[in-house]
Structures are given as structure tokens and as C-alpha cells.
Amino acid sequence: MRTIPPFRLPGSDGRTWTQNDLLGRITILYLYPRDMTPGCTAEACDFRDRHAELVNAGILLLGVSGDSLDRHAQFIAKERLPFVLLSDPEHQLVQALGAWKQKNMYGKKTFGIERSTFLIDRQGNVAREWRKVKVEGHVAEVLHAACMLARVP
Q1: What is the pLDDT of residues 3-29, one digit of tens each?
Q2: Hey, which of 9, 48, 61, 110 would disulfide with 83, CB 3.0 to 4.6 Å?
Q3: C-alpha 15, offset from chain centre
Q4: Domain 8-151 has CATH 3.40.30.10
Q5: How confident is the model at residue 70 (pLDDT cuts 50, 70, 90)?
């Protein structure tokens, strides 16, 4: 099992987050391309709508994109998101997790974040990962896996 790589990123809650902040709790870390785009909004709103279940199970949810904190603040306000979004404009954590990928958009090759989700255990290990995420049904699957992991002492 691999551990979550070291990172230091500003959060929408005004604090700087590191990998050490994840220790001692189950964490869902979801990486997404951009705030306020259709797929990313659908995914964020799915997490929003199931957030109470995560909180009740003691699970931390963090979203990560390359967007600025100002953009995150707009996204949070518009969609009423109750969880922290981390800003990774240099793609530090995204690259370390292998989610910075070449994409082909209408024949033009660009680099961007591959929609991915990582389930982190209490020791900071990546317990499960989802790559090339399709939004529909994803949050329910992640929530189930996280709750199962949270039950393990």
C-alpha cells in the first residue's frame, strides 16, 4: 500500500493543509478538473447531498483542483458546498498522485486533471483509488467503500 504523498496546500477554510492533517481519520480526497463546469458541479453536488452521511461516519471529504481560492469561494457559495476545497495551482498533489494527464480535446492535446478519487485510511495509506471517474453513481460507490473502511478498527 502506498502512502499519501507529502503536500502543503491552501484550503477554502483559510488554513494550510498537509498530509499530516489526514492522519487518524478516513479521508476521501477527490480531484476534479475545474470549478463550475458541468461534470465537476454534478460531482460536487452529489458529495454535498451525501455529506451528512460522511460526517456521521467520521469521514473527512476534501476536493482538490487547480482553481484559485477565490474561484473556490465562488463555487462553494453558488453550490452551498459544506466541505473544504484545496487549491493546487502548481498541480503538486495532483502530479504526485498521477492524476495530471494529457487530454485530447477536439483534436488539441492539453494537460489537465484526470477526475480521480482516493480513499485514505487512518494511517495515511491510499486504501482505494478510482481513476477516469464517471460522475453518475460514483459518490454512492465511494461513500460505501469509505463507510466500510471506517468500520474497520
Answers
A1: 999 999 999 999 999 999 999 999 999
A2: 61
A3: 17
A4: yes
A5: very high
Q: Is 45 a catalytic residue?
A: no
Cell of 54: 460522511
pLDDT for 19-59, tens place per residue? 999 999 999 999 999 999 888 999 999 999 999 999 999 99
More confident residue, 2 or 120: 120
Please report the DSSP string for the chain in residue order: -PBPPP-EEEBTTSSEEEGGGGTTSEEEEEE-S-TTSHHHHHHHHHHHHHHHHHHHTTEEEEEEES--HHHHHHHHHHHT--SEEEE-TT-HHHHHTT-EEEEEETTEEEEEEPPEEEEE-TTSBEEEEE-S--STTHHHHHHHHHHHHHH--
Residue with cell 477527490: 30
- Of the candidates 29, 31, 40, 139, the residue annotated as catalytic is 40
Angstrom distance (rounded) from CA 102 to CA 111: 4
**32 phi/psi in degrees, rounded to 5:** -140, 155
